[in-house]
Amino acid sequence: MKDIKSFIKEASFSDLEKAKVLIEAALNERQAQETAKQEVLALLKEKGLTLDDLVENNSADKRAKVQAKYRITRDGETFEWSGRGKRPKAFEGVLLEQYLAN
Fold first, then answer.
1. How far apart are CA 22 and CA 27, in angstroms?
2. Are residues 53 and 90 located together in one domain of the fold?
3. How many domains does the chain have?
């Protein structure tokens, strides 16, 4: 708000007119959005739905987990790799055939 008050004090008449046009356009757009929002909410209520009914739960990762193709144990720690993507450091410099997981 301070920025707006400062602009008003320092702006020329033509700058103020341009700002007025931009503000009126923003207000009209906001009013149209509010009207549309109220119409949609009324329609949902009329149909007996809620916003939650429209939103699918996409939070869970739908990709299937790939089974590990290679398994290696180093210093008591087991590392697994599907063979896809960048090769983990635990598998660098080794023959992968020796570490095929069964």
1. 9
2. no
3. 2
User: Can you read off the two tokens belonging to residue 65?
Assistant: 């987990």
Return the bridge partners of 80, or none: 71
Report the distance separating Cα 54 and Cα 40, nearest Å.
Answer: 12
Find tokens 């009207």 and name the residue. 35
Q: What is the pTM of this model?
A: 0.48
Residue with tokens 């023959």: 95
The verdict on 53 and 18 lying in the same domain is: yes
CA–CA gap between residue 72 and residue 88 (Å, rounded): 11
Beta strands, E only, 4-88: 70-74, 77-81
DSSP state at residue 96: G
DSSP tag of 100: B
The predicted-structure confidence for 17-47, as pLDDT tens digits, reads as follows 999 999 999 999 999 999 999 999 999 999 9
